[in-house]
Specification:
about 45% helix; single chain; mainly alpha; about 130 residues; two-stranded antiparallel ribbon
């Protein structure tokens, strides 16, 4: 809170703290944007709604995956989170979380190395879809 603390006349008491805070926020926003781009890029051409800015997660429509097969199973809204976990060890929220059975929730507010690994696993999964 010291970054916002002001003297009675309105002057910032700790301008260096304010600048440090803004620098940290800029850095965090950039890191989140990079992570988001990695996750969205791994999804392939399924989700035009993923171009909305901001946030800590995306909730793309994965209806384009429904009816496709992977590992001998046909993907549908109910089975997708389990199949995705079994094939990639990635946990997603199902459409019930999004109030839309055609969506899943993918969190990208994780350390960069974990997001990069998740993106590789998603790309491999998408590549297996028949």
């Amino acid at each position: 809170y010291g970054a916002w603390l002001r003297a009675p006349a309105g002057r910032l008491l700790h301008p260096a703290r304010r600048e440090a805070l803004h620098a940290h926020l800029r850095s965090t926003r950039l890191a989140l944007a990079v992570n988001r781009a990695r996750i969205v890029g791994a999804l392939g051409p399924i989700a035009p709604e993923t171009d909305a800015p901001g946030g800590l997660f995306v909730a793309p429509s994965v209806a384009g995956w429904f009816g496709k097969r992977v590992g001998g199973e046909t993907i549908d809204a109910e089975r997708l989170p389990r199949i995705l976990y079994e094939r990639t060890h990635l946990v997603v929220n199902s459409g019930a979380w999004c109030s839309d059975p055609e969506r899943i929730r993918l969190v990208f507010s994780l350390p960069e190395d974990r997001v990069q690994e998740a993106a590789h696993r998603l790309e491999a999964f998408v590549g297996e879809l028949e």
